[in-house]
């Protein structure tokens, strides 16, 4: 039986990915602060399990405990065919010029959610894979912001750049060790999500490109999460063609 771990399943891309995985017959662990009753209901309709794991990714000690619980549950499953992981959850805040970002707690929390937590989750899954002989295929959701500087997004650009380098480095380590496990990145582009609304509500002093992002919505240039999640899940669940270490870009599929 295939199992999946998806972060940020309360809404947006995480919810859409979890739904597709459930539809394909996978049992899903959804890590999020808020429970998604729709996924619970959908899993029952598809005769699989959706396990909501309540966790704030900004709390590393709680995340460590939740991952121990998930992996202990999987260790007692008689046969795990593959463990799929989608590190999707992220935050944009704080959005502002660097010379205005002086709140240490805000920057620390941002870095924990966007960079440290995905690392901790994947590291734990890969470690468990060695002890239990589970194949692992993981996707770290990144952003074009990790590849170009966007004024006002210094924290977000930096953590997404970190996710890209982490993905590429872990892939090299897996290759050197002879592991068949895979880790890859996926840049979903601009989608019609709450995160985009958050960007549009920024002020120009804090975020220089805010009017550009407002125009994306106004002109219908935002993609729907359903079409983006379909591409991501297709890449994730096609081990023959998924290239470990590659950063996939949704724009290549349109």
UniProtKB/TrEMBL annotation:
<keyword id="KW-0963">Cytoplasm</keyword>
<dbReference type="Pfam" id="PF00106">
    <property type="entry name" value="adh_short"/>
</dbReference>
<dbReference type="InterPro" id="IPR036291">
    <property type="entry name" value="NAD(P)-bd_dom_sf"/>
</dbReference>
<dbReference type="InterPro" id="IPR051721">
    <property type="entry name" value="Biopterin_syn/organic_redct"/>
</dbReference>
<keyword id="KW-0560">Oxidoreductase</keyword>
<protein>
    <submittedName>
        <fullName>SDR family NAD(P)-dependent oxidoreductase</fullName>
    </submittedName>
</protein>
<dbReference type="InterPro" id="IPR002347">
    <property type="entry name" value="SDR_fam"/>
</dbReference>
<keyword id="KW-0521">NADP</keyword>
<dbReference type="InterPro" id="IPR020904">
    <property type="entry name" value="Sc_DH/Rdtase_CS"/>
</dbReference>
<comment type="similarity">
    <text>Belongs to the short-chain dehydrogenases/reductases (SDR) family.</text>
</comment>
